[in-house]
Amino acid sequence: MHQQTEVAILGGGCFWCHAAVFGEVRGVTRVASGYTGGSVPDPTYEQVCTGETGHAEVVRLEFDPAIIPYHDLLEIFFTLHDPTTVNRQGNDVGTQFRSVIYYQSAGQESVARKVLAEMAGVWDAPIVTQLAPAQAFYTAEDYHQNYAEQHPLHGYCALVVAPKVEKFRAMYAGRLK
Length: 177
What we know:
Elements: E1 6-12, H1 15-22, E2 28-36, H2 45-49, E3 56-63, H3 70-80, E4 88-89, E5 92-93, E6 99-103, H4 106-120, E7 130-133, E8 138-139, H5 147-150, H6 155-171
Helix pairs in contact: 1-6, 3-4
């Protein structure tokens, strides 16, 4: 049986958080942390951190839509970050931390617009998540891949990433690998 995978590219704060959670989602077959949406080809983490390249920290997910539909991935995405804050997630501030969905097709754009409308009824403040067509994706440096899994005692991982992973496990136990 041939498994048909799709790609989702999502940004909503530090990519370590999203990579840690989506790595546990049944149906997600590959997770890569990286950068997209900017003007500099193949940027470094240091360049992206300046906010001058225009890139967002994102995760690129390969997933099997027969197991986890795109709609459901987006629902999880919206529980992992605050989509009402412009260019910020908690203490992480800058354009690289913006809330953004990079769609791969007209179908994904349509689903994303539907989920955005659904989320507008969930949050008390207006949703500021950007919706944009997919652009060149640049894989982040090797040390950023599976960062939280490799460095669970790192302060940021313990204080920020771990609670998001626990929240996902509690809310979406049926979606765990």
